[in-house]
Amino acid sequence: MLRPALFETTGPLFFDRVFHDFFGNGFNQFDNFNTDVIDKGDSYLLEAELPGFQKEDIRIDLDKDTLTITAAHNEEKREKKDNYVRQERRYSSYCRSFHIPGIKKENISAEYNNGVLGITLPKEQAVIEEAKRIEIQ
Q1: What's the CA gap between 124 and 43, in Å, rounded?
Q2: Strand partners, 73
Q3: Among 17, 55, 47, which Cα is nearest to 118's?
Q4: Is 134 inside any structural domain?
Q5: Three-class SS of residue 89?
Q6: Per-residue DSSP letter, 31
């Protein structure tokens, strides 16, 4: 089962949070992007809504069992007309981490279309051990 990691980052700040389940109330909807996790049977599909970002603005990192999605966008506008000068700057950054045990890390794939990042996380095959009788000596 996918669960958010015990930490999430928003800009330069780190907040330690304990999440009891994936859909708990621990998410701050204003600091993070929306995500959906769909169980496809042999894989999970994680969909992250990142409208306004370009593919080049998004980074996906995997460190052991932690998948981190980071999106950063920097925009600057300048207008100069007679004595009127206008400058606007906008910077937005989001970061979200997920604890993903039991995933085939070498087969993870991602695509970005129309503001939605899709990450396919193939499941590892569960090893089923047979019951074993222990002989008494």
Answers
A1: 9
A2: 92
A3: 47
A4: no
A5: strand
A6: T
Domain harbouring 51, CATH code: 2.60.40.790
Bridge partners of 72, per DSSP, are 93
78 found inside a domain: yes
Residue 127 lies in a domain: no
Q: Is the pTM of this model over 0.85?
A: no
Task: List pLDDT tens digits, range 63-121.
Answer: 999 999 999 988 887 887 777 777 788 788 899 999 999 999 999 999 999 999 999 99
The β-bridge relationship of strands 58-63 and 43-49 is unpaired
Which residues span the domain enclosing 16? 3-122
With respect to residue 28, please indicate whether it lies within any of the assigned structural domains.
Answer: yes
Distance CA 11, CA 45 (A): 26
Token pair 């007309």: residue? 81
Question: Is-contact 36 46, C-beta < 8 A?
Answer: yes
